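Comment thread on ticket #2218

A.B. wrote:
> Attaching the input chain for the structure job we discussed in standup.
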Amino acid sequence: MQSPLQRNLNNPNHHATSNMISPFSLQQADWDESPEKIFLPPTDPNAEIIEIPGYILVYVNGACPKTYRVYTDDSMIGVIFQHITHWSNAVDKIRYAEPVDAAVGLDEFMKVTRISKATTEQPLTEEELLDKEFDSLTDEEWERLRKYVPQAKHLVAA
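C.D. wrote:
> Ran it. Output below, let me know if you need it in another format.
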């Protein structure tokens, strides 16, 4: 009996590709390789990687396009795709000749997004900081909390 994903892939009117990730594909019992392979970090000796100046590309899956996770230092910034004739990333519609160009385009987009988000967000109040996990607080947030004096609200003298 075929899985729902396999039925869709065998249907000529269905436009899915075999490298799509879906709940059905993750449940398939007839994997050619371990599903954990797609989650290998760039430091794993079994990871298929491409090193380019400033970036490490780790192969995830697919044939056309091939999907690569993009790392700078030890953090993943997104994914890029290797097509037959070009490279692309997951954030713009540009066709790049080289993988480094697709990675740089992705990286620049992510940097602009972080800057834009940082300038539009209001800093958390001290009350909101108290709800955060202490390990995730920055030095500046710790200093704000150290100086914070809670205001007594709705207190009734006994």
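A.B. wrote:
> Thanks. Noting for the ticket: The two ends are 74 Å apart (CA to CA).
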